Amino acid sequence: MDTVVTRQRLFVFYLVPDFTLLAFSSAVEALRLANYVLGYEAYAWRLVSADGGKVWASCGVSFDTDNDVAAERQMLARGQRPFMTVICAGHHVERHANKPTEAWLRECRQNGVAIASLCTGAHILARAKLLDDKKCVIHWENFPSFVEQFRGACVRTSLFAIDGGIHTCAGGTASFDMMLHIIQRDFGEVVVSGVCELAFVDRVRSPSDRQRLPFARRTGALHPEITSLIERMQETLTEPLPVDELMVGIRLTRRQIERLFRNELSCSPARYYMKLRLERAKLLLSQMTTPIVEVAIASGFSSASHFSKCYRETYGCSPQQTRKHKSLALGAA
C-alpha cells in the first residue's frame, strides 16, 4: 500500500454557472465512498462560487455555496490552505471567466495548493495562465475551440491528465476515475477496490484511456489497427493526408481496412476522415466567432466553396446557417 495520509484533505469545489452535474457529483461521490470504506472522514469538501450565492447546474438543479472567492483569498492569505481547488464547469464556460477567480487560482498554486478542473473547467485554468506548457484535457466537444484559443497548452484527448500539481479531467464519469487515482495514491488499491464495489464500477480507467471513438458503436471493440488509423486521422485534421499515407505501418491491406471500416463504422476510410473534419468544423462554428473561411482552413479545407458544399451535404445546412443558429441560441439564453 502507498503511504497512508493521516491528515484530512480538504477539496474546494468552485461551481461555475451551468456546470455539469454528472462531473461534479461523480467527483464528490468518489470521495464520500472513500470515507465510507475507510471508516472516517479522510476527505472533506466545501462549495465556493464567485459571489457566495446559489449556483445552477446545466440541468437546472441549484446548490447553495459555503464561500465566495474573496473569502477564499483571505483564508489563503492567512495560511488556511485546502489540499485541492477544483473548477467545475460546463456549458458557456467562456461567459463566466473573471479576473478575481483567475488571481485566486494563481495564488493557490503559489501557495502549494493542487488545482483541478472538471469538464470545461480547463478553460478557466488556461485563462489564468496555469496551463501553459502543461499536459491537459477538456471535454471532446470543446477540444477544437480550446486548441485554437490556447495554443500554449499541450491538450490531449484522454480522460484526464496530471502535470505538475494540475489535474484536468474531461468530465462526466471521468471525474470518478480521476478521484480514484488520487484515492489510490493516498490509500492504495484496497480502498479503491472497496469504492468500486460500492459504486458498481468494474474497471478503473487510466489517464491515457481515450474519451471517445467518434461515430463508433458502443458495443464491442474496434480492430486495434483500425483504432490506430483513426488516431492518425484525428492528429491530422488540419492538414489531412491521403489515406494511403496514413496506412503506412498498418498491418492490414487496403482491402481489409475498407472492409473493416464498412462493417464496423458503416463508411469508407475516406468518408470517415471527412466526417471527422466536418465535425471539427461544426464545433468551431458553434463555439467561436472565427470567420468561416478560417474554420474551413482549420478543418483541412483549402477552398471555402468546397467546405460549404461538403458541410451542406453532411448536415443539410450551410456553415452560415449553423453560425446563425448559434447566435440566435445565445441571444435567447
From TrEMBL:
Cross-referenced InterPro entries: Class_I_gatase-like, DJ-1/PfpI, Homeodomain-like_sf, HTH_AraC, HTH_AraC-typ_CS, INH-QAR, Tscrpt_reg_AraC-type_HTH
Lineage: superkingdom: Bacteria
SMART domains: HTH_ARAC
Presence of keyword Transcription: yes
UniProt keyword Transcription regulation present: yes
Keyword tags: DNA-binding, Transcription, Transcription regulation
GO molecular function: DNA-binding transcription factor activity; sequence-specific DNA binding
Residues passing through the membrane, by range: none
The HTH araC/xylS-type domain, residue ranges: 227-325
Pfam (any one): HTH_18
Stored PANTHER family: ARAC-FAMILY TRANSCRIPTIONAL REGULATOR, HTH-TYPE TRANSCRIPTIONAL REGULATOR RV1931C
Name used for this protein in its record: AraC family transcriptional regulator
Organism field: Aliidongia dinghuensis
Upper classification of the organism: Bacteria, Pseudomonadati, Pseudomonadota, Alphaproteobacteria, Rhodospirillales
